[in-house]
Amino acid sequence: MTRIAVVGGGRIGEALIAGLRDAGTQAQDIVVIEAVEARATELAKKYNVLATSLDIGCEGADVIVVAVKPGDVPAVVERIGNAISDSVHESIVVSLAAGVPTVVMENKLSAGSPVVRVMPNTAMLVGQGVSAVSKGRFARDEHLEQVITIMKSVGAVVVVNESQMDAVTAVSGSGPAYFFLLAEALVDAAVEQGLPRDVALTLATGTALGAGAMLASGGDGPADLRAAVSSPGGTTAAAIRRLEAGGVRSAVADAVEAAATKSRVMAQSAQEADDDEVDL
Hints:
There is one protein chain. The chain has twelve helices and eight strands. The chain has helices at 11-22, 37-47, 54-58, 73-84, 102-106, 141-151, 165-173, 175-192, 197-216, 222-229, 235-245, 248-279; strands at residues 4-7, 30-33, 50-51, 63-66, 92-95, 115-119, 129-135, 155-159. The chain has 280 residues and is an alpha/beta fold. Helix 7 (165-173) packs across helix 12 and helix 8 crosses helix 9 (197-216). Helix content is 55%, strand content 12%. Strands 3-2-1-4-5-6-7-8 form an eight-stranded mixed β-sheet, sandwiched between helices.
C-alpha cells in the first residue's frame, strides 16, 4: 500500500484524509503532521490515523502531501527535504498550494526529487472537488499516476502542463466563489421579489445542484443546456437577455483574467524569493 503523509491539518488537509479513508485507504497508511497539538490530536482520533512530527512522519512515506498556505510552502518543503535527505526511500512531494512553481520546491529537496503540483478546489471538502495535476522535471508518469489516484478520493482529476496552472487556478481553484456569489445574488433578488430568505436559499441551492448534475452528466454542453431552458419569448429568455446586456460574459472573463494574473504574480514572487535565497 502507498504510505501517505499529509503535512497540514487545516480544512484541505482534513478533506484529503477524509476522502482517502472513505476511499478505503487503511488508517495505518496515513500520517498527519500538524503543528497545533490540539488539532493534530483531533484529527488522529477522528480518522484513527497517526499524528506525529514532520521528521518521523516523512520517514518512509511514499507520498508527502503539503497542504499549507502558499507562503509557508517553501519553508515546509525545505524541512521535508532535510528530513528525507539521507533516506534511500523515494518520496513524491506534492503541493496543494496555489502559486508555488515546482522548481521552487525542487530547489529545497535533494537533486532529482520528484515533485507534483496539484490545484484542487474547496469542493473537495464534500468529495466533489476537481483537481488539476502537473509534474515537475523529475517526476515520472508512475509518480503522476500515484498522485492522481490519491486526488480521485476527493473528486475528479485532470492532467495539465504546469504552464496552464495559472488558468486552472483562475477557473476551478477560485471558481467555487464565483458560483457562491451568483447564488448569493440570486437569493437577494428572490427576496426582493417577495420570497422568504430561507425559501429563496433552498431554491437557489437546489437549482445550482441540479444544474451542476446536468452539466456533469456528459450530455449537452452549457450552451445547449441553456438554449434548451430558454423557450422563445419566455421568462428565461427575458432574463438571459438582461444578463447579456449587463455584460455578464465580459465580467466573468475579466474575473478569470484577474485571478490568473494574480496567480502568475504569486508564482513569480515565489520564484524570485527562491532565487534570492540561492544567491545568498
